[in-house]
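Project standup — Tuesday

K.O.: blocked on the structure for the chain from last sprint. Re-posting the sequence here as requested.
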Amino acid sequence: MKESKFNISNESIIRNAIQERIMNNELKPGDTLPSENVLADEFGVKRIVVRNALVQLEKMGLLDSRQGVGRFVKEKRPVIELDMSGRRSFSDKMREQGVHYESRVIFAGYASENEQEKYRRALGVVDVSMFKVARLRIVDHTPCAIHISYVREDMVPDINEEMEQLASMFNYYGKHGYTNLKSMNTHIHTAFPTLDEQRHLECEELVPLIVYESQTMDLDTTRILEQTRILYRSDLFKHALGSVN
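H.V.: unblocked you, prediction finished:
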């Protein structure tokens, strides 16, 4: 059997040990971590190795640091359960849970040339312009998701003139007679946020995003309206996959 060349760094060992202490409530939200020197002695490594591990934990959203005071376990944010069914709007799902919700359009216009080509191919159409709508979802005053819709302009030909109505695509489609919607061909993967996504979501670079890519079909016409890409902060949502249809 070929010997594996995979090695676990000391930084990873320290990071994992502290993560386990947080998960096991040995370190609770608000608790102060031991100093870098104390941890260096505990793990038998140089102080810089400990510092690098702690900085990674900060970027993962697990620790806070205050200059001259030390590092603390970050307070846990409330986790929201999210039903991934495409039959109801995101705002309706938040309203049912009594959660304050806001949708803010951060881009509305024609997609780039590369995006036009990619999403025309994904939707199986030609000579159709793709309109891009990106919205920031804000739950309990916290930016938590970016919802990007690549919309077939031929299905809603006036979309370029109705940008003030795009805060809820679900409601926008309803006004245009598309009321029987279904999410289909859903794919899920993870990614780390780009700089632009970090700014919008107000999260650190090592907070994973859960990415849902799907298509929205109008069941009455059996025509696909859009390709959707939604980026959720993984530290804020619990996803109920059993309801996807």
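K.O.: great, moving the ticket to review. DSSP finds seven helices and ten strands in the chain. The helical segments are 10-23, 36-43, 47-59, 90-96, 113-123, 169-175, 195-201.
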